[in-house]
Amino acid sequence: SAVISQKPSRDICQRGTSLTIQCQVDSQVTMMFWYRQQPGQSLTLIATANQGSEATYESGFVIDKFPISRPNLTFSTLTVSNMSPEDSSIYLCSARDWVETQYFGPGTRLLVL
Amino acid sequence: QKEVEQNSGPLSVPEGAIASLNCTYSDRVSQSFFWYRQYSGKSPELIMSIYSNGDKEDGRFTAQLNKASQYVSLLIRDSQPSDSATYLCAVNQGNNDMRFGAGTRLTVKP
């Protein structure tokens, strides 16, 4: 199984600023993803992080707001840009291994004031 | 639209009972199926995977798959209060398209 870590675990940010969340996997994985989840709500996929190329975004999410990098098979970052209170959520990094099993990181709790 | 559907619950069972969680999916070509447990304030944790029709048992958990009916379920025997969580069904629909259900909230009452 893949073990995923995220930094920071939580943050409180001011409106208009940006936050970059880091995701590290302890083994090489095929795919990495970023999700958002409001407390008590279901998972919402933001994008698939592609190694060495632009991420693939889901409907409603754009690169200018959520730039994503994936420089290698074990690391990815998600930036939440020009934040507003509506961006307050839990952001989850996820990775899929070579047998198509998907794992989740512990999440980053973001509060935007 | 390809979807994974679960009863949102809440499902409440007494301690020691069997909890039955159900999931249906719309894409017939789906080949792999997963159950995740998510405690409040925590991230989803994989608890079972199933790929073939029939039952797969792991301790108190049994996953059941019926591809003809496009139905996958999770049974929890001898339910414990510590099993109280939201259970997410996930279906790999092929082409690396993993879809998650909205989850069923389970409460096990002492």
Backbone CA Rg of chain B: 13 Å
What is the average per-residue confidence, as pLDDT of chain B, rounded to a whole number? 93
Can you count the beta strands of chain A? 11
Multimerization status: heterodimer
Straight-line distance between termini of chain B: 40 Å
Number of helices of chain B: 0
First-to-last CA distance of chain A = 37 Å
**Relative helix content of chain A:** under 10%
Low-confidence stretches of chain B: none
Order of helices and strands of chain A: EEEEEEEEEEE
Which helices and strands appear, and what pairs or packs with what?
The complex is a heterodimer of chains A (113) and B (110).
Chain A: E1 4-7, E2 10-13, E3 19-25, E4 31-37, E5 44-49, E6 56-57, E7 68-69, E8 75-80, E9 89-96, E10 102-104, E11 108-112
Parallel strand pairs in A: 2-11
Antiparallel strand pairs in A: 1-3, 3-8, 4-5, 4-9, 5-6, 7-8, 9-10, 9-11
Chain B: E1 4-6, E2 11-14, E3 19-25, E4 32-38, E5 45-50, E6 54-58, E7 61-66, E8 71-76, E9 85-92, E10 98-100, E11 104-109
Parallel strand pairs in B: 2-11
Antiparallel strand pairs in B: 1-3, 3-8, 4-5, 4-9, 6-7, 7-8, 9-10, 9-11
